[in-house]
Amino acid sequence: MEPLCVSPANFAYQVLIGVGGIGTGKFFALEGNHTLGREESRAGHFVDQRDYCKLHIITHYVQVLLGSAFRTILIGRVGDDNEGRQLLDEMARVGLDARYVEVVAGGQTLFSFCFVYPDGSGGNLTTNDSVNATVDHALVDEAIPDFGEYRGHGIALAAPEAPLAARLHLLELATEYSFYRASSLNSLEITSPEGASILSLTDLLAINGDEAAALTGIAPETMRTESGVKMAVKAASQYQPEIAVSVTCGKEGSWVWDGHALQHVPAVMVDAVNTAGAGDAHFAGLLVGLAAGLSLCQAHELATLVAALSVLSPHTIHPTLDRASLKALVDRHTLRLNDNIVGLLGGTATQES
Question: Burial of 80 by CB count in 10 Å (0-12 exposed, 13-18 middle, 19+ buried)?
């Protein structure tokens, strides 16, 4: 049968403008599974894994999967250092619009040092004095002409690892220019006064189980159930009655509330290499689907595929993830998808459910 096609001419949105973390990091594998002590010296070695920050991860997948017909505009700051220059080069290679990513002379690019125990657990240390921590209203305002050009036809993305005030201002502009407003907040931010303001200006909230638990004040393990997710939806809707909510729960799959019904999609079982960044990949899949004109529930299925493929790379951005590799994943697992998702991936009508 003939391939299906989701045409850019039918996209629901033409641009994404985002504020969030732009930075990089390194992974260090520790010897021994016992928790690192305050004054302990521990041996280990650097691992060939590259870490990226949230705005970059999300927008990378959005741009790659939607193609050159869609504009993805980043707002942030990097240092005039090797890390910053490399990030800008990688952004340019996939077509990201970094006109509003300022290079600050003498400044330091956001950097994370990730440590991993032999059992796969670990943590990270992230700089809190990077130039991305200075992103402010004035820098966000530089994108006002783009908001005006795409009034009513864009998505605003407020992602963590940038100041809450700058993210809130982005959503204020998005409200003024009738953009679809997508946000994520970490566990500490989600209960802060600024977090409450962001929630009140959010159309789609994408969080993980721990963040949902912080929002509701319940134990994280409870959040991996339907009743727990419903509590998170109820808590979020107190700030914005029409808010849609996505909650990712790792191997237990993910949940989406579209304003009418709660949908659960199981995780695609793959042999994960590195699960860091999977939640950001899932968020990207949601935004890709919505931009392409899918319903939120259909976008949720697409997001599950993007997250599953992302964990097959040791890096937090899978360098070869694209529509063709997503279609190959679908074929390997003989997954049955909605016609619209098949069309977006360039598949054939024989795959439809």
Answer: middle
